[in-house]
Amino acid sequence: PHAHSFLITAYTIINEVLAMKDKCLKTYTIIGVFFVLAAGSLAHFLYDWTGSNAIAGLFVPVNESVWEHMKLLFFPMLLYSAFGAWIYRRQIRCIVSALCLGITAGTLLIPVFFYAYTFILGRNIFLLDIGTFVLSTVIAFRLAFQLAVSCRAKPYILLSCVMVGVLFACFLWFTNHPPDIGLFSAYAPSDFALPC
Known about the structure:
- This protein has helices spanning 2-49, 54-59, 66-88, 95-121, 126-150, 157-176.
- It is an all-alpha fold.
């Protein structure tokens, strides 16, 4: 009888701890979405505000290319994720892999959404550009949350960290050495005009 009541008590405590962990993680995730949206929005103007500072340009957009706008999600989410990974490293075993996969997915969704809607409409629309950033950020954090709770990404921790590292290195390199392809070209509304 005592063993049975002990098991029930232990089970109840474990469930309460897990529910509290999920609640904390949800709060962290929601705050993260707003942090990245705010920091990314400010980062859009930071290069100009710093007088075209070369160091700032490594981490914020230096022109209107799609590639440079991917930095708006990548670096703020990386910063926020580093904080979260440190805070939750003991409570959530797979937080690092989950956040790294969220960062990678969100960053890569920006060009996917942008080119999908500009292909369909034949032009870019400012409000849809903002929507692309918002939607990519929400999906990135939603994915990170789901992977952190389920721990399905744990086996891919090395791969997920390498992907973030490769993106980080590419952002630093391609800021000053952009390839001559569309992703790295500054766009203007007329670039997407439909032929008459």
